[in-house]
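Good morning,

Attaching, inline, the backbone tokens for the sequence recovery test we're adding to the shared suite. The designed sequence is right after.
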């Protein structure tokens, strides 16, 4: 299996959840995460042009879907990779070999989530191809498209979680909404950096009522009013993470803890985003913050019946 050090390098917070999962499916979930992170690295790192990124992503996806490692070849690495990204891309064949050796049920679940994730990644590459800071592409035209993107780039992970751990079907809906909320947080937090890359992910229907569909100016009352609306709406959606985590109390305390931690991180991020003037700095959650949330979640998982909402924290 891939070393813990590499997982920690490419995932500062989610690695905690991975290492704490029940052993029965820990390998499959960790491998699914690394396959997805591999695809994300192909899409968003290094100096490749868009056609090259698309070709690599499709080749890697086919190697997963057909469980044939020999369909994947990466002979030349691009400039601009971090050490962790270079290390991850160098073990692509090993990840695919491990995937091919998983039980059939686990492979089937991973294929479904990878198809959705990579489909959203390919759309992302194509939709924003050619955008620049001076001439950005976006906002996304329809709210339905924005919602589709959030679901397929993150919400589908919640559904995968339900499938792989054989949780009740009734948890699929809150799991998907949980993932969508986390992606909405990412989109808002990363908006200034994405704009510099020529991308505006918010939908026109979200921005239009606030007069922002043509100009994302962080220093206006229009942006403040939009932020209040968007972050409050996202906060309501994030509460599905609490519902999801508390619902698996009798299934596994380890799984319950791992399911709650992203909620805690998301809630703290939302709180700081509400207090921050976006554009001045990128809101980040420190390692000490994550450790504190992890300890609090562990105590609650083992000694209390339910987690409490962070919406008023």
């Amino acid at each position: 299996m891939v070393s813990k050090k590499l997982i920690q390098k490419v995932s500062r917070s989610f690695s905690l959840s991975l290492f704490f999962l029940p052993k029965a499916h820990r390998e499959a979930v960790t491998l699914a995460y690394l396959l997805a992170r591999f695809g994300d690295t192909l899409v968003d790192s290094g100096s490749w042009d868009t056609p090259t990124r698309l070709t690599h992503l499709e080749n890697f996806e086919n190697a997963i879907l057909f469980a044939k490692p020999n369909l994947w070849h990466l002979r030349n690495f691009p400039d601009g990779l971090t050490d962790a990204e270079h290390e991850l891309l160098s073990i692509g064949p090993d990840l695919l070999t491990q995937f091919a050796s998983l039980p059939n049920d686990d492979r089937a679940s991973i294929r479904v989530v990878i198809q959705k994730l990579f489909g959203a990644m390919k759309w992302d590459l194509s939709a924003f191809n050619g955008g620049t800071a001076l001439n950005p592409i976006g906002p996304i035209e329809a709210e339905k498209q924005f919602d589709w993107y959030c679901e397929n780039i993150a919400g589908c992970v919640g559904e995968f979680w339900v499938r792989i751990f054989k949780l009740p079907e009734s948890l699929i809906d809150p799991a998907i909404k949980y993932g969508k909320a986390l992606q909405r947080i990412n989109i808002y937090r990363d908006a200034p950096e994405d704009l510099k890359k020529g991308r505006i992910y918010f939908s026109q229907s979200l921005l239009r009522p606030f007069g922002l569909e043509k100009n994302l100016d962080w220093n206006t009352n229009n942006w403040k009013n939009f932020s209040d609306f968007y972050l409050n709406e996202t906060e309501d959606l994030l509460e599905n993470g609490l519902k999801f985590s508390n619902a698996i109390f009798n299934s596994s305390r380890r799984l319950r803890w791992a399911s709650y931690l992203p909620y805690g991180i998301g809630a703290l991020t939302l709180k700081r985003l509400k207090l921050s003037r976006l554009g001045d700095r990128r809101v980040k959650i420190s390692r000490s913050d994550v450790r504190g949330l992890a300890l609090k979640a562990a105590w609650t998982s083992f000694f209390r019946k339910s987690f409490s909402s962070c919406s008023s924290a």
